[in-house]
Amino acid sequence: MQDEPIDKKDILEELSKLHELDYNYSDGRILGSMCTEAHPFAKEVYCKFLDTNLGDPGLFKGTKRIENEVIKSIGELLSLDVAYGNIVTGGTEANIMAIRAARNHARKYKGIVDGEIIIPESAHFSFKKAADMLNLKIVEAKLDENYKIDVESLKGVISDKTVAIVAIAGTTELGLIDPIGEISKIAFENNIYFHVDAAFGGFSIPFLKESGYDLPVFDFSLPGVCSITVDPHKMGLAPIPAGGIIFRKEEYLEVMAVDSPYLTVKTQSTIVGTRLGASSAATFAVMKYFGRQGYCRLANEMMGNTNFLYEQLLEIGYEVVCKPELNIVAFNHPNIETDEFAEKLEDLGWKVSVAKCPKSIRIVLMNHIKRDHIKELLEDLKELY
Ligand code: PLP
Prior knowledge:
CATH topology of the largest domain: Aspartate Aminotransferase, domain 2
Radius of gyration: 22 Å
CATH superfamily of the largest domain: Type I PLP-dependent aspartate aminotransferase-like (Major domain)
Bound molecules: pyridoxal-5'-phosphate
CATH architecture of the largest domain: 3-Layer(aba) Sandwich
Shape: globular
Strand order of the largest sheet: 1-7-6-5-4-2-3
Strand content: 15-25%
CATH class of the largest domain: Alpha Beta
Order of helices and strands: HHHEHEHEHEHEHEEHEEHEEHEEH
Structural class: alpha/beta
Largest sheet: 7 strands, mixed
Number of helices: 12
Protein backbone atom coordinates (compact mmCIF):
# COMPACT_ATOMS: atom_id res chain seq x y z
CA MET A 1 0.00 0.00 0.00
CA GLN A 2 1.25 3.51 -0.78
CA ASP A 3 1.88 6.04 2.06
CA GLU A 4 -0.23 8.96 0.91
CA PRO A 5 -4.02 8.86 0.31
CA ILE A 6 -4.99 8.89 -3.36
CA ASP A 7 -7.74 11.02 -4.84
CA LYS A 8 -11.07 9.20 -5.33
CA LYS A 9 -11.17 10.18 -9.01
CA ASP A 10 -7.79 8.55 -9.67
CA ILE A 11 -8.75 5.42 -7.79
CA LEU A 12 -11.97 5.11 -9.76
CA GLU A 13 -10.12 5.64 -13.02
CA GLU A 14 -7.69 2.85 -12.18
CA LEU A 15 -10.53 0.54 -11.18
CA SER A 16 -12.49 1.33 -14.35
CA LYS A 17 -9.52 0.45 -16.51
CA LEU A 18 -9.26 -2.93 -14.83
CA HIS A 19 -13.03 -3.46 -14.96
CA GLU A 20 -12.88 -2.89 -18.72
CA LEU A 21 -10.88 -6.12 -18.99
CA ASP A 22 -13.96 -8.03 -17.76
CA TYR A 23 -16.55 -9.49 -20.09
CA ASN A 24 -20.05 -8.03 -19.80
CA TYR A 25 -23.12 -10.21 -19.55
CA SER A 26 -25.02 -7.67 -21.63
CA ASP A 27 -22.84 -8.39 -24.67
CA GLY A 28 -24.48 -11.83 -24.83
CA ARG A 29 -21.09 -13.45 -25.40
CA ILE A 30 -20.78 -15.25 -22.04
CA LEU A 31 -22.23 -18.61 -23.02
CA GLY A 32 -20.94 -20.93 -20.30
CA SER A 33 -21.85 -19.20 -17.04
CA MET A 34 -24.59 -20.25 -14.62
CA CYS A 35 -24.62 -16.72 -13.24
CA THR A 36 -26.06 -13.70 -14.96
CA GLU A 37 -26.64 -10.01 -14.47
CA ALA A 38 -28.71 -9.44 -11.35
CA HIS A 39 -31.98 -7.56 -11.62
CA PRO A 40 -31.41 -3.76 -11.11
CA PHE A 41 -33.94 -3.63 -8.26
CA ALA A 42 -32.12 -6.44 -6.43
CA LYS A 43 -28.83 -4.53 -6.84
CA GLU A 44 -30.41 -1.37 -5.45
CA VAL A 45 -31.67 -3.22 -2.37
CA TYR A 46 -28.34 -5.02 -1.96
CA CYS A 47 -26.51 -1.68 -1.60
CA LYS A 48 -28.88 -0.55 1.16
CA PHE A 49 -27.99 -3.59 3.31
CA LEU A 50 -24.22 -3.63 2.83
CA ASP A 51 -23.45 -3.05 6.51
CA THR A 52 -25.75 -5.72 7.92
CA ASN A 53 -24.16 -8.79 9.48
CA LEU A 54 -26.21 -11.95 9.89
CA GLY A 55 -23.36 -13.50 11.85
CA ASP A 56 -24.61 -11.43 14.78
CA PRO A 57 -28.38 -11.53 14.25
CA GLY A 58 -29.26 -9.97 17.62
CA LEU A 59 -27.88 -6.70 16.24
CA PHE A 60 -29.72 -7.06 12.94
CA LYS A 61 -33.09 -8.43 13.99
CA GLY A 62 -34.89 -6.98 10.98
CA THR A 63 -32.44 -8.42 8.49
CA LYS A 64 -32.61 -11.79 10.28
CA ARG A 65 -36.38 -11.70 9.79
CA ILE A 66 -35.77 -11.02 6.11
CA GLU A 67 -33.53 -14.10 5.87
CA ASN A 68 -36.18 -16.20 7.64
CA GLU A 69 -38.83 -14.93 5.22
CA VAL A 70 -36.67 -15.83 2.21
CA ILE A 71 -36.03 -19.33 3.57
CA LYS A 72 -39.78 -19.72 4.16
CA SER A 73 -40.60 -18.61 0.59
CA ILE A 74 -38.00 -20.88 -0.99
CA GLY A 75 -39.22 -23.70 1.27
CA GLU A 76 -42.78 -23.18 0.01
CA LEU A 77 -41.53 -23.26 -3.56
CA LEU A 78 -40.04 -26.67 -2.70
CA SER A 79 -43.22 -28.02 -1.05
CA LEU A 80 -42.02 -27.52 2.53
CA ASP A 81 -44.37 -25.75 4.95
CA VAL A 82 -41.83 -25.14 7.69
CA ALA A 83 -38.31 -24.64 6.32
CA TYR A 84 -34.98 -24.16 8.10
CA GLY A 85 -31.77 -22.93 6.56
CA ASN A 86 -29.74 -19.95 5.45
CA ILE A 87 -28.87 -17.69 2.58
CA VAL A 88 -25.16 -18.34 2.06
CA THR A 89 -22.52 -17.42 -0.50
CA GLY A 90 -23.49 -19.93 -3.17
CA GLY A 91 -24.02 -23.53 -4.11
CA THR A 92 -20.62 -24.57 -2.81
CA GLU A 93 -21.22 -23.33 0.71
CA ALA A 94 -24.78 -24.68 0.67
CA ASN A 95 -23.56 -28.14 -0.36
CA ILE A 96 -20.82 -28.10 2.28
CA MET A 97 -23.42 -27.23 4.93
CA ALA A 98 -25.67 -30.08 3.79
CA ILE A 99 -22.85 -32.60 3.92
CA ARG A 100 -21.69 -31.28 7.29
CA ALA A 101 -25.24 -31.69 8.64
CA ALA A 102 -25.40 -35.24 7.28
CA ARG A 103 -22.01 -36.18 8.71
CA ASN A 104 -22.74 -34.75 12.15
CA HIS A 105 -26.19 -36.34 12.21
CA ALA A 106 -24.80 -39.76 11.31
CA ARG A 107 -22.03 -39.36 13.88
CA LYS A 108 -24.50 -38.42 16.63
CA TYR A 109 -27.31 -40.88 15.91
CA LYS A 110 -25.54 -43.79 14.20
CA GLY A 111 -22.02 -43.51 15.59
CA ILE A 112 -20.44 -43.39 12.11
CA VAL A 113 -16.94 -41.92 12.43
CA ASP A 114 -15.26 -42.55 9.06
CA GLY A 115 -18.19 -41.85 6.77
CA GLU A 116 -18.72 -41.97 3.02
CA ILE A 117 -20.87 -39.86 0.72
CA ILE A 118 -22.35 -41.22 -2.48
CA ILE A 119 -22.36 -38.70 -5.31
CA PRO A 120 -23.02 -39.18 -9.02
CA GLU A 121 -20.16 -38.86 -11.51
CA SER A 122 -21.97 -35.72 -12.69
CA ALA A 123 -21.84 -33.99 -9.27
CA HIS A 124 -20.43 -30.49 -8.96
CA PHE A 125 -16.84 -30.37 -7.64
CA SER A 126 -18.05 -28.62 -4.47
CA PHE A 127 -18.72 -32.10 -3.03
CA LYS A 128 -15.03 -32.90 -3.40
CA LYS A 129 -14.25 -29.82 -1.31
CA ALA A 130 -16.90 -30.88 1.24
CA ALA A 131 -15.48 -34.40 1.51
CA ASP A 132 -11.96 -33.06 1.87
CA MET A 133 -12.87 -30.58 4.60
CA LEU A 134 -15.14 -32.97 6.47
CA ASN A 135 -12.83 -35.95 6.22
CA LEU A 136 -15.31 -38.10 4.29
CA LYS A 137 -14.66 -40.58 1.53
CA ILE A 138 -16.32 -40.04 -1.83
CA VAL A 139 -17.99 -43.01 -3.47
CA GLU A 140 -19.22 -42.38 -6.98
CA ALA A 141 -22.43 -43.81 -8.41
CA LYS A 142 -22.24 -44.42 -12.16
CA LEU A 143 -24.37 -42.67 -14.73
CA ASP A 144 -26.70 -44.47 -17.13
CA GLU A 145 -26.69 -43.99 -20.91
CA ASN A 146 -28.77 -40.80 -20.44
CA TYR A 147 -26.14 -39.24 -18.12
CA LYS A 148 -28.34 -39.61 -15.02
CA ILE A 149 -27.61 -41.59 -11.86
CA ASP A 150 -27.78 -45.31 -12.51
CA VAL A 151 -29.98 -46.37 -9.60
CA GLU A 152 -28.66 -49.95 -9.55
CA SER A 153 -25.08 -48.63 -9.33
CA LEU A 154 -26.15 -46.38 -6.47
CA LYS A 155 -27.77 -49.26 -4.58
CA GLY A 156 -24.59 -51.25 -5.02
CA VAL A 157 -22.38 -48.70 -3.28
CA ILE A 158 -24.52 -48.08 -0.19
CA SER A 159 -22.68 -49.32 2.91
CA ASP A 160 -22.94 -49.03 6.69
CA LYS A 161 -20.56 -46.05 6.40
CA THR A 162 -22.81 -44.05 4.05
CA VAL A 163 -23.68 -40.75 5.70
CA ALA A 164 -25.31 -39.10 2.67
CA ILE A 165 -26.57 -39.70 -0.83
CA VAL A 166 -26.50 -36.79 -3.25
CA ALA A 167 -28.53 -36.34 -6.43
CA ILE A 168 -28.73 -33.39 -8.80
CA ALA A 169 -31.70 -31.41 -10.08
CA GLY A 170 -30.05 -29.58 -12.97
CA THR A 171 -26.57 -30.97 -13.51
CA THR A 172 -23.81 -28.44 -14.04
CA GLU A 173 -22.73 -29.79 -17.40
CA LEU A 174 -25.98 -30.90 -19.05
CA GLY A 175 -28.80 -29.47 -16.89
CA LEU A 176 -30.32 -32.94 -16.35
CA ILE A 177 -32.48 -34.07 -13.43
CA ASP A 178 -31.57 -37.33 -11.69
CA PRO A 179 -34.29 -39.90 -10.82
CA ILE A 180 -34.82 -38.20 -7.47
CA GLY A 181 -38.14 -39.93 -6.66
CA GLU A 182 -36.56 -43.38 -6.88
CA ILE A 183 -33.48 -42.31 -4.93
CA SER A 184 -35.60 -40.68 -2.23
CA LYS A 185 -37.34 -44.03 -1.72
CA ILE A 186 -34.03 -45.86 -1.41
CA ALA A 187 -32.63 -43.27 1.02
CA PHE A 188 -35.81 -43.30 3.11
CA GLU A 189 -35.93 -47.11 3.32
CA ASN A 190 -32.26 -47.27 4.31
CA ASN A 191 -32.54 -44.34 6.74
CA ILE A 192 -29.79 -42.39 4.94
CA TYR A 193 -29.60 -38.60 4.65
CA PHE A 194 -30.52 -37.51 1.10
CA HIS A 195 -29.38 -34.15 -0.28
CA VAL A 196 -30.61 -32.71 -3.58
CA ASP A 197 -28.34 -30.21 -5.29
CA ALA A 198 -30.76 -27.94 -7.15
CA ALA A 199 -28.34 -25.00 -7.16
CA PHE A 200 -29.11 -24.51 -10.83
CA GLY A 201 -32.57 -26.06 -11.27
CA GLY A 202 -34.21 -24.89 -8.05
CA PHE A 203 -35.31 -21.55 -9.44
CA SER A 204 -36.60 -22.94 -12.73
CA ILE A 205 -37.98 -26.49 -12.33
CA PRO A 206 -40.95 -25.42 -10.12
CA PHE A 207 -41.89 -22.67 -12.57
CA LEU A 208 -41.47 -24.84 -15.67
CA LYS A 209 -43.65 -27.53 -14.07
CA GLU A 210 -46.23 -24.87 -13.26
CA SER A 211 -46.13 -23.83 -16.93
CA GLY A 212 -46.86 -27.38 -18.10
CA TYR A 213 -43.35 -28.81 -18.70
CA ASP A 214 -43.23 -32.51 -17.91
CA LEU A 215 -40.39 -32.59 -15.38
CA PRO A 216 -39.94 -35.00 -12.46
CA VAL A 217 -40.65 -34.20 -8.81
CA PHE A 218 -37.41 -33.28 -7.03
CA ASP A 219 -38.45 -31.54 -3.83
CA PHE A 220 -39.53 -32.04 -0.20
CA SER A 221 -42.82 -33.66 -1.29
CA LEU A 222 -40.59 -36.74 -1.53
CA PRO A 223 -40.25 -38.01 2.06
CA GLY A 224 -36.59 -39.04 1.74
CA VAL A 225 -35.31 -35.57 0.82
CA CYS A 226 -33.55 -33.99 3.84
CA SER A 227 -32.05 -30.86 2.29
CA ILE A 228 -31.96 -28.94 -0.98
CA THR A 229 -29.47 -26.41 -2.34
CA VAL A 230 -31.09 -23.65 -4.42
CA ASP A 231 -29.11 -20.66 -5.64
CA PRO A 232 -30.82 -17.29 -5.98
CA HIS A 233 -27.68 -15.98 -7.75
CA LYS A 234 -28.16 -18.38 -10.65
CA MET A 235 -31.70 -18.59 -12.07
CA GLY A 236 -33.14 -16.35 -9.33
CA LEU A 237 -31.51 -13.14 -10.70
CA ALA A 238 -30.22 -12.12 -7.25
CA PRO A 239 -26.76 -10.52 -7.03
CA ILE A 240 -23.72 -12.67 -6.26
CA PRO A 241 -23.23 -14.04 -3.59
CA ALA A 242 -26.55 -15.73 -2.87
CA GLY A 243 -26.88 -19.45 -2.35
CA GLY A 244 -29.64 -21.15 -0.42
CA ILE A 245 -29.62 -24.20 1.81
CA ILE A 246 -32.99 -25.50 2.95
CA PHE A 247 -33.35 -28.23 5.58
CA ARG A 248 -36.45 -30.28 6.30
CA LYS A 249 -35.80 -30.36 10.06
CA GLU A 250 -34.28 -27.99 12.59
CA GLU A 251 -32.20 -30.84 14.02
CA TYR A 252 -29.94 -30.67 10.94
CA LEU A 253 -28.96 -27.14 11.96
CA GLU A 254 -28.69 -28.18 15.60
CA VAL A 255 -26.15 -30.94 14.93
CA MET A 256 -23.87 -28.29 13.37
CA ALA A 257 -24.24 -25.70 16.14
CA VAL A 258 -21.14 -24.47 17.95
CA ASP A 259 -21.10 -22.05 20.89
CA SER A 260 -20.62 -18.42 19.83
CA PRO A 261 -19.77 -16.77 23.18
CA TYR A 262 -19.21 -13.10 22.33
CA LEU A 263 -22.18 -12.72 19.97
CA THR A 264 -25.86 -11.90 20.52
CA VAL A 265 -26.85 -15.52 19.87
CA LYS A 266 -25.61 -18.51 21.86
CA THR A 267 -24.79 -20.80 18.94
CA GLN A 268 -24.00 -20.64 15.24
CA SER A 269 -24.56 -23.38 12.64
CA THR A 270 -23.33 -21.66 9.48
CA ILE A 271 -19.78 -22.18 8.20
CA VAL A 272 -19.16 -18.47 7.80
CA GLY A 273 -19.21 -16.19 10.86
CA THR A 274 -19.67 -12.61 9.72
CA ARG A 275 -22.00 -12.84 6.75
CA LEU A 276 -23.89 -10.57 4.43
CA GLY A 277 -27.46 -9.56 5.15
CA ALA A 278 -27.47 -7.86 1.74
CA SER A 279 -27.81 -11.20 -0.08
CA SER A 280 -30.95 -12.07 1.86
CA ALA A 281 -32.44 -8.61 1.38
CA ALA A 282 -31.75 -8.61 -2.37
CA THR A 283 -33.18 -12.13 -2.74
CA PHE A 284 -36.25 -11.08 -0.75
CA ALA A 285 -36.69 -8.10 -3.08
CA VAL A 286 -36.27 -9.95 -6.35
CA MET A 287 -38.59 -12.80 -5.29
CA LYS A 288 -41.33 -10.34 -4.32
CA TYR A 289 -40.74 -8.29 -7.45
CA PHE A 290 -41.11 -11.24 -9.84
CA GLY A 291 -43.55 -13.42 -7.96
CA ARG A 292 -44.39 -16.84 -9.37
CA GLN A 293 -45.73 -15.29 -12.57
CA GLY A 294 -42.53 -13.36 -13.23
CA TYR A 295 -40.32 -16.42 -12.68
CA CYS A 296 -42.62 -18.54 -14.88
CA ARG A 297 -42.22 -15.98 -17.65
CA LEU A 298 -38.42 -15.94 -17.24
CA ALA A 299 -38.10 -19.73 -17.15
CA ASN A 300 -40.28 -20.06 -20.23
CA GLU A 301 -38.29 -17.47 -22.14
CA MET A 302 -35.03 -19.26 -21.35
CA MET A 303 -36.47 -22.66 -22.33
CA GLY A 304 -37.83 -21.10 -25.55
CA ASN A 305 -34.31 -19.94 -26.41
CA THR A 306 -32.86 -23.30 -25.39
CA ASN A 307 -35.21 -25.27 -27.64
CA PHE A 308 -34.62 -22.83 -30.50
CA LEU A 309 -30.84 -23.32 -30.26
CA TYR A 310 -31.24 -27.11 -29.89
CA GLU A 311 -33.41 -27.42 -33.01
CA GLN A 312 -31.25 -25.10 -35.11
CA LEU A 313 -28.10 -27.03 -34.16
CA LEU A 314 -29.72 -30.28 -35.25
CA GLU A 315 -30.82 -28.67 -38.49
CA ILE A 316 -27.28 -27.51 -39.29
CA GLY A 317 -25.99 -31.00 -38.49
CA TYR A 318 -24.23 -30.61 -35.13
CA GLU A 319 -24.20 -33.57 -32.75
CA VAL A 320 -26.29 -32.61 -29.74
CA VAL A 321 -25.56 -34.64 -26.59
CA CYS A 322 -29.14 -34.87 -25.28
CA LYS A 323 -32.51 -33.20 -25.54
CA PRO A 324 -32.35 -30.36 -22.98
CA GLU A 325 -34.45 -30.72 -19.82
CA LEU A 326 -33.39 -27.32 -18.51
CA ASN A 327 -31.66 -24.39 -20.20
CA ILE A 328 -28.37 -26.01 -21.21
CA VAL A 329 -27.42 -27.30 -24.67
CA ALA A 330 -24.29 -29.42 -25.14
CA PHE A 331 -23.04 -30.30 -28.60
CA ASN A 332 -20.07 -31.21 -30.78
CA HIS A 333 -18.88 -30.52 -34.29
CA PRO A 334 -19.00 -33.78 -36.27
CA ASN A 335 -15.36 -33.51 -37.41
CA ILE A 336 -13.52 -31.04 -35.17
CA GLU A 337 -12.27 -32.06 -31.72
CA THR A 338 -14.09 -30.24 -28.86
CA ASP A 339 -11.18 -28.18 -27.45
CA GLU A 340 -10.09 -27.12 -30.92
CA PHE A 341 -13.67 -26.15 -31.77
CA ALA A 342 -14.00 -24.22 -28.49
CA GLU A 343 -10.88 -22.26 -29.47
CA LYS A 344 -12.39 -21.38 -32.82
CA LEU A 345 -15.47 -20.02 -31.07
CA GLU A 346 -13.27 -18.12 -28.59
CA ASP A 347 -11.43 -16.56 -31.55
CA LEU A 348 -14.79 -15.28 -32.74
CA GLY A 349 -15.39 -13.71 -29.31
CA TRP A 350 -17.71 -16.34 -27.80
CA LYS A 351 -16.91 -17.37 -24.21
CA VAL A 352 -17.90 -21.02 -24.26
CA SER A 353 -17.17 -23.74 -21.74
CA VAL A 354 -16.29 -27.37 -22.33
CA ALA A 355 -18.13 -30.16 -20.51
CA LYS A 356 -16.17 -33.23 -19.50
CA CYS A 357 -18.87 -35.92 -19.46
CA PRO A 358 -19.32 -36.28 -22.32
CA LYS A 359 -16.74 -33.92 -23.75
CA SER A 360 -18.75 -31.23 -25.52
CA ILE A 361 -19.33 -27.52 -25.94
CA ARG A 362 -21.79 -26.46 -23.28
CA ILE A 363 -24.05 -23.43 -23.61
CA VAL A 364 -26.06 -22.20 -20.63
CA LEU A 365 -28.97 -20.13 -21.85
CA MET A 366 -29.13 -17.58 -19.06
CA ASN A 367 -31.21 -14.42 -19.01
CA HIS A 368 -28.47 -12.29 -20.61
CA ILE A 369 -28.49 -14.41 -23.79
CA LYS A 370 -31.22 -13.03 -26.01
CA ARG A 371 -32.66 -14.47 -29.23
CA ASP A 372 -30.57 -12.09 -31.36
CA HIS A 373 -27.36 -13.28 -29.68
CA ILE A 374 -28.34 -16.87 -30.46
CA LYS A 375 -29.02 -16.01 -34.10
CA GLU A 376 -25.60 -14.34 -34.30
CA LEU A 377 -23.99 -17.43 -32.77
CA LEU A 378 -25.83 -19.68 -35.23
CA GLU A 379 -24.49 -17.65 -38.14
CA ASP A 380 -20.95 -18.35 -36.89
CA LEU A 381 -21.79 -22.00 -36.32
CA LYS A 382 -23.09 -22.32 -39.88
CA GLU A 383 -19.83 -20.81 -41.16
CA LEU A 384 -17.76 -23.22 -39.06
CA TYR A 385 -19.74 -26.30 -40.07
N1 PLP B 1 -24.08 -27.18 -7.63
C1 PLP B 1 -24.34 -27.13 -8.94
C2 PLP B 1 -25.28 -28.12 -9.56
C3 PLP B 1 -23.74 -26.15 -9.74
O1 PLP B 1 -23.97 -26.11 -11.04
C4 PLP B 1 -22.86 -25.23 -9.11
C5 PLP B 1 -22.18 -24.18 -9.89
O2 PLP B 1 -22.28 -24.05 -11.05
C6 PLP B 1 -22.62 -25.34 -7.74
C7 PLP B 1 -23.25 -26.33 -7.03
C8 PLP B 1 -21.67 -24.39 -7.04
O3 PLP B 1 -22.24 -23.13 -6.95
P1 PLP B 1 -21.36 -21.84 -6.61
O4 PLP B 1 -20.42 -21.66 -7.75
O5 PLP B 1 -22.39 -20.78 -6.47
O6 PLP B 1 -20.65 -22.10 -5.33
